[in-house]
Amino acid sequence: MFIRKFLLLIFLVFFSFSLSFAEDKEKMKQAERDIQRLFPRFKVSSMVKLPISEVYEVVAEDGAVIFYSPSGYVILGDIMNLRGESFLAKIYDEAMKRLLEVNDGRFFVKVSNGTYRVVAFLSPTNKESKDVYSFLKQKKNLDFYVFPLVFSEDDIKLASYIYCAKDRVSAMNEVFEGKVNVSDVKLDEACQKKAREVLSINLRVAKAVMAYNEVSVFIGDKRIYGYQPLDIMKALYFIGWREEDGGKGKK
């Protein structure tokens, strides 16, 4: 009798686990359907339960994150608790402090030297990215860094061209000025493989600092929401940079 009850208990536990697994899998599929309908470019990669009832963190293949509830809500941006603390702020702050470290193999190019740090995540094939790059590289007194951010095979090829070049600044200028065609890119196989690895790390770095778009610009530790040159110019002026004197204003 005891053995029979014990086996029944094991069966019930296994059955409950199976139901829970099946339920989570179905929620994942439903999340994909719902999110794909709302955001066609958001390709779901993983879905993780949060310690908040009925809320899931949904991560895209390109590193973007949103929050999803099976009850019918999609949450964009941050989540705050009742003490006014940001759910993502600590992770974001830590990521920003380590943004220009290279211990994990992340790949960026320092385009110019100056006083005011500007970091841009840019897609090599995106028109707005090219406009922003052209605008920022001409400005005086900016410590300008670029992380190539890839969303397509063409992005990967052009970003790999930059990574594998002996003079990466020159290669980046060529790519963002439209002087390099994807069809013309011929790379050493070993370097191309390494480039793909570091570019995937760049996607994780972008996710950590919430750089989800083809163009994301950070001045100091602040992200500029809006990527047209006018928005960036206003932000530069806000921190004290002046174009006419090469940026000698106060920070």
| Side-by-side strand order of the widest sheet | 5-7-6-8-9
CATH superfamily of the largest domain: Glutaredoxin
**What would you report as the Rg, rounded to the nearest angstrom?**
23 Å
Strand content: 15-25%
Give the total of beta strands. Answer: 9
Walkthrough of the structure:
It is a single chain. With 251 residues, the chain is of the alpha+beta class. It has two domains: 57 residues, no CATH class; 133 residues, Glutaredoxin, CATH 3.40.30.10. Helix content is 43%, strand content 18%. The chain is built from seven helices and nine strands, in the order αββββαββαβαααββα. The strands form two sheets. The chain has a five-stranded mixed sheet. A hairpin with a 3-residue loop joins strand 3 and strand 4. The radius of gyration is 23 Å and the shape is globular.
Give the topology, please.
Layout: H1 2-38, E1 44-49, E2 56-60, E3 65-69, E4 73-75, H2 89-97, E5 109-112, E6 116-122, H3 127-137, E7 142-148, H4 153-164, H5 168-176, H6 189-208, E8 215-219, E9 222-224, H7 229-238
Parallel strand pairs: 6-7
Antiparallel strand pairs: 1-2, 2-3, 3-4, 5-7, 6-8, 8-9
Helix pairs in contact: 4-5, 4-6
Please outline what is shown here.
By secondary structure, the chain is α+β, with helices and mostly antiparallel strands.
